[in-house]
Amino acid sequence: MRGANQAPSRIPWGFAEFFIISQTALPALLFLPGTQVFRLPIRTAAFAISLLAFAWWILESPRDVRQSRVQSWVGAVMALLAIMVFHPLTPSLLGGVAQMGLYLAVMAPLFWAPVLVRTPEHLARILWILLICSGCNALVGVLQVYDSRWLPAEFSRILSSNEGAMGPVTFIGADGQRLVRPPGLFDTPGAVAGPAMSAAFLGLVFAISTSLPWWRRALGFAFAIAGLAAIYLSQVRISLVMTLLMMIVYTVVCLRQGRAARASQFGILAASILFGGFLIALTIGGPAIRERVMTLLGSDPIGVYQTARGTQLSLTFNEMLFEHPLGAGLGRWGMAAVYFGSFTHLSTPLWAEIQFTGWMADGGILMIALYCSALAVTALTQWRVATSTRYPRLTASAGVVFAANLGTAALIFSFVPFVTQIGIQYWFLAGALHGVSSAHGVEGA
């Protein structure tokens, strides 16, 4: 691996670029027939690459990037997890270590990415590659609903082994056929919603970038529409809400940066693709898409959330907080529990649909406080970089990263992003922005 200390035009492709591609390419291997028997190593590989990069950072990386403020919070999270491995309710040592390794793999890019990405131009290239990967993912998702031949040969064995599991992830399409919520380049129905968020937001950002050639702007706009259509078709309402949040935040950042014309153009195009993506999804998916979207408007936001994920939040702070204030043992939920848990009548599996529940199980109220502090510090430092005026190219990239990461962080109320590849993307972008801002003498995340 090499740092990015060369002139922008001479920065060769390196580990950072291939890492972003691997996060889409590796799960896409599960599209191949017969690969479900290798699902664990394939899915693990996407996280193992991050851990290998972290090992490289410890052993060989030059220490020419100053430590960021948030790294100490991440260190505190890992220290707490190390203690929780020995919690009496941890179902197995292997399961506890696996859960701890998962956390580290997700957060590790915060440490090694700053060494590899040091210029705004390099960060812009990373964002472009991320758009290509996410856009292709979203486009495949749209095609999967249009023509079932684009679906993976086999779905996740966890779903396939449960006859009732596929029912909630299907809907009746415009032609009366039962359709599967698109997985995109994954093997789990609805999974395209995550990358589709990035495609919709980043595609629109690049679509209004006047410094780019027309074909790249057109491609960005096409991916943005595909991203919105894929979100509608996946029927994952929170992804639609978070995409809208990203767009609003980015518009505010542009206004704060004094780029009112860009903010206006972005806002107008955002409204157009929100409507255009809906029309495409409605044409393919039929009334089920309209009914799903309208549930967001059928009640007040708190009522909608309470119906969807509010019970999990209530469970976390009204029950688990008092039953397990210091955690319920490590590795009792998620993939670590599925693959490595050895449960007893005293330590049974737990179910976590939102990140707060998972944090409460893994480390109690202290884990929630530490991880939320890490996210808050990251957001504040990225906002400072985005609103500084010394380096326009840096602030332009920082505004994009800030808006994208804020949308990801907000998912903790309805999903478990920080034990998935969505979390890896969050910390990678945070680390890359810190590398660039550090090289310019600006305080980064």
The mean pLDDT is 89
Q: What is the H-and-E element order? A: HHHHHHHEEHHHHHHHHHH
Record field, number of beta strands: 2
What topology, given as strand order, has the largest sheet? 1-2
Count of the domains = 1
Low-confidence stretches: 1-9
Strand content: under 5%
User: Rg from C-alpha positions?
Assistant: 21 Å
Inertia-based shape: globular
Q: How many helical elements?
A: 17
Major β-sheet, in short? 2 strands, antiparallel
Helix content: 55-70%
Instruction: Report the oligomer.
Output: single chain
The class by helix and strand makeup works out as: mainly alpha
| N- to C-terminal distance | 22 Å
Fold topology:
Blueprint: H1 15-28, H2 39-59, H3 69-84, H4 93-107, H5 109-116, H6 120-146, H7 157-160, E1 170-172, E2 178-180, H8 193-207, H9 214-234, H10 237-256, H11 260-285, H12 287-294, H13 301-323, H14 334-340, H15 355-386, H16 392-409, H17 421-439
Antiparallel strand pairs: 1-2
What is shown here, in short?
By secondary structure, the protein is an all-alpha fold.
Description:
By secondary structure, the chain is mainly alpha-helical. It has one domain. The chain contains 17 helices and two strands. The protein has helices at residues 15-28, 39-59, 69-84, 93-107, 109-116, 120-146, 157-160, 193-207, 214-234, 237-256, 260-285, 287-294, 301-323, 334-340, 355-386, 392-409, 421-439; strands at residues 170-172, 178-180. Strands 1-2 form a two-stranded antiparallel sheet. Helix 16 (392-409) packs antiparallel against helix 17. The longest helix is centred in the C-terminal third of the chain and has 32 residues, at 355-386. The radius of gyration is 21 Å and the shape is globular. The model is unreliable at 1-9 (pLDDT under 50).
